[in-house]
Amino acid sequence: MIAANASEAFANAAAAMVGPHDVVGTITGLLEDCGALTGAAALGILVHDGQNGLELLSATSHTAAELELYQIQTDTGPCVDTLSTGQQLHVIGSEQIIQRWGEIGKAIAAAGFAQIHTSPLRWHGNVIGGLNAFHRTTEPLDDSALHLSQAFADVAAVVILHSMDVGDNEIADRINNALQGRIVIEQAKGVLAERHDIDMAQAYQLLNSMPRNTGETLTTIATRIIHHAEQPH
User: Fold this and answer.
1) Contact in structure between 150 and 117 (CB atoms under 8 Å)
2) What is the DSSP letter of 141?
3) Cβ atoms of 138 and 114 closer than 8 Å
């Protein structure tokens, strides 16, 4: 269920952290809430993998995931810039987006997005990731939406690391553990697409809807889907 307000969204994230810790599921829920409360049509998070590389942690749609992966492949784009500078970034208009990021900008515009806003995931002075929000309108975000986006990014960082005393090595370990959950979800998405003869975007939506219907974590459901697919029939 999408949160009605920011307080409910953050309370849901806090509740998730005191139970079985499903990082990707909790992050995905945060992104969906952020989109609903700020007007973003799609969102994604890239994180440092601890080896000078970037990885996709979560996205609210298949399109957003593809745009994030494209940024990783080319080492350019809005999320890459925010990870480099540690600052929020806000660009409005397809022409401006294309002018700034070239082929990545063209892909963003072709997907129907006309405004980009990114926020860094910060932890004790380090930038561990970036939250990328894609908007379909050119109406500028107000200050409250900009602050709220950063608040969601900050909470996402806490969800990933979930501790006050985390060294550099453990930061990398925790991010890599979270990324393992992402791999499971990608595999489950492929199973659902084949099972139901649907495309990957529809499979992604179907998988993301399951925790709301069952009360289980996203990673638990994805693991079960893969396990069932591996059994002889």
Assistant:
1) no
2) P
3) yes
Amino acid in position 194: E
Which of 56, 29, 26 is CA-nearest to residue 44?
A: 56
Q: Which CATH number fits domain 6-166: 1.20.1250.10, 3.40.50.300, 1.10.287.370, 3.30.450.40?
A: 3.30.450.40
- Measured distance CA(65)–CA(56) in Å, rounded: 7
Spatial contact of 129 and 30, defined as CB atoms under 8 Å apart: no
Residue 161's pLDDT is what? 84
- Altogether, the residues listed in the chain come to a count of 233
Contact 192, 198 (CB under 8 A): yes
* DSSP designation for 167: -
Would you list the domain boundaries of the chain? 6-166
Spatial distance between the Cα atoms of 40 and 69, rounded to a whole number of angstroms: 19
- The string over 155-164, giving b where at least 16 C-beta atoms fall within 10 Å of a residue's C-beta and e elsewhere, is bbbbbbbeee
pLDDT per 10-residue tile (average), the chain, 233 residues:
77 76 85 93 92 88 94 95 95 98 97 97 92 96 93 92 64 78 89 92 88 80 90 72
Gyration radius (Cα) of the chain, Å: 17
Rounded to 10 deg, the angle between the 200-214 and 62-74 helix axes is 120
